[in-house]
C-alpha cells in the first residue's frame, strides 16, 4: 500500500485509542480491521473535475488500486487472526478437569484406594495462554505491509538490442532476397503453364532439373533480368540454380508442381501438375 494509506490506517488506530474505543494493550484485531475497511468503503468520491478535466477519483486511480490491495491484505490478516482465535478457543475448551476421567466421583471425605490407578492423564498438552495483540504490534504489522507493497519489482524489462549496421544490411538483403524468390516462383509458374507443352508432348513425363534450368534461361522474364545470354559464371549459376529450386519448393507447397528424387544426392526431376489428372499420375514411393 502507499505510504498515505499506511499513515491513514495508523492514524485511525491512534484516534481509536485516544477516544478509548480500543485497548492499546489488547487490540481486538477483527473489529479494528472491519471498522477500517468500512472507512475505505465509505470514502466519498469527488465529482469535481481537476485541472486536466478529470475527476479526482480518476486522477487517483493508482491510489484506489493500492487501497484495494491494502484491503485484501488486511482481509488476509483478519482471516489468519480468525483461524488463530478458533484454535485458541478449541484449546481453551480443554479445562483442567478434562485431564481426569469423567466417571470418577470423589468426595472430600472418602478417596479410593490406589488412587494412581484411577487417575489417567490424557495425551493432550495444556492450552497455551491467549496472546494479546498490542497497538504497537498492530502498527508494526501495518508498516511491514506498507514496506512490502512499496518495494519495487525486481523484474527488469529487456530493452531491444540495437542492431549493428552489418545486421541491418543483412536483414534488408534477406528481405529483398525473399521478395525475389516470390517473383521467381510466380515467373516459374507462368513459364511452366505457358511452355511446358512446348517441351513435352506428354504432360505426365518428368523433366530433369538441369534441363529445366536450360529452358528457364531462355524464357526468364524481364522482371528477373531477362533471358540469360551466354554462359554464367560458377557463382552466378549456383545463385540462379538455388533461386529456381526455392521457387519450385514454393510451387510444390501449392500443389502446382511435383518434385522427385529416386535416391538421395541424385538427380532431381520436376513435373507440372496443373494439367495432369490424378488418375494419370502414377504413385511413387520416397527413397529410404
Automatic annotation (TrEMBL):
User: Is-annotated flag, keyword Protein biosynthesis?
Assistant: no
> Which InterPro entries does the record cross-reference, listed alphabetically?
ScpA (IPR003768), ScpA-like_C (IPR023093)
Keywords, A to Z, come to:
Chromosome partition
The GO annotation for biological process reads: chromosome segregation
Q: Which domain of life is it from?
A: Bacteria
Does the keyword Secreted belong to this entry?
A: no
User: One Pfam annotation, family name?
Assistant: SMC_ScpA
Q: Kindly provide the name given to this protein in its UniProt entry.
A: Segregation and condensation protein A
Amino acid at each position: 500500500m502507499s505510504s498515505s494509506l499506511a499513515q491513514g490506517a495508523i492514524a485511525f488506530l491512534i484516534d481509536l485509542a485516544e477516544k478509548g474505543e480500543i485497548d492499546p494493550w489488547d487490540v481486538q484485531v477483527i473489529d479494528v480491521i472491519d471498522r477500517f475497511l468500512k472507512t475505505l468503503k465509505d470514502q466519498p468520491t469527488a465529482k469535481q473535475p481537476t485541472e486536466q478535466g478529470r475527476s479526482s477519483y480518476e486522477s487517483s486511480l493508482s491510489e484506489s488500486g493500492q487501497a484495494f490491495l491494502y484491503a485484501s491484505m488486511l482481509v488476509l490478516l483478519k482471516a489468519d487472526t480468525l483461524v488463530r482465535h478458533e484454535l485458541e478457543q478449541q484449546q481453551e475448551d480443554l479445562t483442567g478437569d478434562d485431564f481426569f476421567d469423567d466417571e470418577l466421583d470423589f468426595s472430600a471425605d472418602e478417596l479410593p484406594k490406589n488412587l494412581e490407578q484411577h487417575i489417567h492423564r490424557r495425551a493432550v498438552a495444556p492450552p497455551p495462554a491467549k496472546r494479546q495483540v498490542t497497538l504497537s504490534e498492530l502498527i508494526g504489522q501495518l508498516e511491514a505491509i506498507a514496506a512490502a507493497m512499496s518495494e519495487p519489482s525486481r523484474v527488469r524489462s529487456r530493452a531491444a538490442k540495437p542492431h549493428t549496421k552489418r545486421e541491418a544490411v543483412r536483414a534488408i538483403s534477406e528481405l529483398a532476397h525473399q521478395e525475389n524468390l516470390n517473383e521467381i516462383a510466380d515467373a516459374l509458374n507462368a513459364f511452366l503453364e505457358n511452355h511446358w507443352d512446348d517441351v513435352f508432348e506428354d504432360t505426365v513425363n518428368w523433366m530433369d532439373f538441369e534441363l529445366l534450368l536450360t529452358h528457364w534461361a531462355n524464357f526468364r522474364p524481364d522482371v528477373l533480368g531477362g533471358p540469360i545470354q551466354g554462359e554464367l559464371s560458377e557463382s552466378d549459376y549456383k545463385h540462379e540454380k538455388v533461386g529456381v529450386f526455392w521457387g519450385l519448393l514454393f510451387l510444390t507447397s501449392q500443389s502446382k508442381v511435383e518434385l522427385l528424387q529416386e535416391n538421395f544426392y541424385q538427380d532431381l526431376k520436376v513435373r507440372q501438375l496443373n494439367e495432369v489428372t490424378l488418375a494419370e499420375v502414377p504413385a511413387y514411393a520416397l527413397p529410404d
